[in-house]
Amino acid sequence: MSYKNTVKPVLVLTLICLAVALLLAVVNYVTAPVIADATAEAERKARSEALPGATDFTEVDIAAYPDLPATVTACYRDNDGGGYVFLVKSPGYGGKSNPITMLVGIKPDGKIAGIKITDVSGETAGIGDKVKKNDFTSRFTGIDHTEVDGVLNVSGATYSSTGVKTGVRDAFVVFDVLTSPD
Fold first, then answer.
1. Does a structural domain hold residue 29?
2. Which tens digit of pLDDT belongs to each residue from 117-146?
3. pTM value?
């Protein structure tokens, strides 16, 4: 085998790989802002579903408060005073490695405005993922922290239902810290 027959295919393949990598970099550069805008809009819409009527939010730095539940990963305040939305990642059947992700909206009077469950991929399909449906999440609307345990579980989905309830209770803990007169 000659040197020419060995180097030429390697050089051609290398040039093809470089061209494809450059093309992917250009596509990523062009689409990244569009994807970021679409993601931000989807997140804003989900927050508005958890806190109906609210459209403009400011993120609250909850890291400044010690001893908050680790399941609450972000908090957003409605700029018009309509309440707070908490991003919660609570373990269900999928455990801590694949938690139930939800947004919990709480009005200033301490009652739940709404819950938007955004990820149940760790829950059993057809059973545990039913906690995402409106007939379960609507059971929380209008209740306060004392009534969370009274919400009926989804039949056959105890871990998933308990995960949602735990997440809602944790959101109330952060809400109480943020709204306490200290």
1. no
2. 998 888 888 888 889 888 899 999 999 999
3. 0.80
DSSP state string for 1-47: --HHHHHHHHHHHHHHHHHHHHHHHHHHHHHHHHHHHHHHHHHHHHH
Residue matched to tokens 């709404």? 114
Distance in angstroms (rounded) separating the CA atoms of residues 46 and 8: 54
Cβ contact 113:141 at 8 Å: yes
Q: Which residue has the tokens 């009274």?
A: 150
Within-domain flag for 28? no
Tell me how long the chain is: 182
In a domain, 168, yes or no: yes
Task: Give the number of domains in the chain.
Answer: 1
> Which residue reads 């943020």 in tokens?
178
